[in-house]
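Data availability (excerpt). All sequences and predicted token strings are deposited with the supplementary files. A representative entry, Phosphohistidine phosphatase SixA, is shown inline so that the format can be inspected without opening the archive.
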Amino acid sequence: MRLWLLRHGEAEPRAATDAQRELTRHGRKDVLQTAAVLAGRPLGAILASPYVRAQQTAELVRDALGFIAAVGTVPWLTPDSDPREALDFLAERGEQDLLLVTHNPFVSDLAGFLIHGHRQEPVPMGTASLAELEGDLLVPGLMSLRTVHHVRRH
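Structure token line:
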């Protein structure tokens, strides 16, 4: 199984609520740069946080890749979610290649939890950063970190 973890692109600093913050122009550009890393990858599904910036990020990636299926929205991909809840949900999924579009600290905590088996070593993820994890089973401590792609600022 391959799990791709994408943190949303740079977002506006303020909105009526945190969930309503939208991507900036730079955030959109960064997401498209990261989407190029996924070109040609056999994604089975794209799942995203219900927050606007994550939805926008997922749609940009979906369009850039020409991914036909709709983006799935799941409530546990928000900033302060518990990685254990995510694993319960993901255990029910059948895809071998899955992209999750989410936020910090959740994305960093989930990656660290899957790699190390605990949450004391989160994987640093900037905006539009993409981590690739691989393993036979989606079990804490049994996934390997293949790569982390960080956006290059020009």
